[in-house]
Automatic annotation (TrEMBL):
It comes from the Eukaryota. This is Uncharacterized protein. It comes from Glomus cerebriforme.
């Protein structure tokens, strides 16, 4: 059973304790039973196993069967190149996929997003118009510059000088 998980599912079994093995065995048999139900069903696309498959369309089936034929041809090329050594070895394109691979992580992310956002049919249609006011920048006037020049020329102004300049600026405008 370990070989089956490692070889075909890609799950390298780290924990070989009874509880972990039982959990994997239950998951595996659940998958087997659902696949048997799919093969026995007259319309397997309506079953829950294929509920999130976006590729179960006419074009998706065409791509799948075309992919099968292309991979079959590619296997024959590899057989001729590496086993029979008739042709020179060409490794380009060995990992290309013509079909979309659905990962469990993607399904969980899509489910998580759908829980956050209600479906479009449930969203109430209303329009909110907001006017974004532009942030106005304060343009320094000549009078303010004349107050700031002595302060900026002093390399180490004291706290009293700073407060005096601030009070002078506040008298001119309350924006400070």
């Amino acid at each position: 059973m370990y070989l089956l998980f490692e070889e075909f599912i890609g799950d390298i079994v780290v924990s070989k304790k009874d509880r972990a093995v039982d959990g994997r065995r239950e998951s595996f048999w659940t998958l087997v039973n659902s696949l048997l139900a799919v093969f026995d069903s007259s319309n397997p696309t309506n079953l829950s196993l294929f509920q999130n498959c976006k590729e179960l369309t006419e074009s998706g089936y065409d791509k799948f069967f075309l992919c099968y034929n292309k991979r079959k041809e590619r296997l024959m090329q590899i057989y001729r190149q590496e086993v029979l050594k008739i042709d020179s070895i060409n490794t380009k394109g060995r990992r290309t996929k013509e079909v979309i691979i659905t990962k469990i992580k993607d399904l969980k992310n899509a489910e998580h997003i759908s829980k956050k956002c209600p479906p479009q049919s449930e969203v109430k249609l209303f329009t909110i118009t907001t006017t974004k006011s532009k942030k106005s920048w304060h343009v320094t006037t000549d009078e303010e510059k004349s107050i700031l020049i002595p302060y900026l020329t002093n390399p180490n102004p004291s706290n009293e000088e700073t407060e005096a300049v601030l009070e002078s600026l506040l008298k001119l405008s309350s924006n400070y």
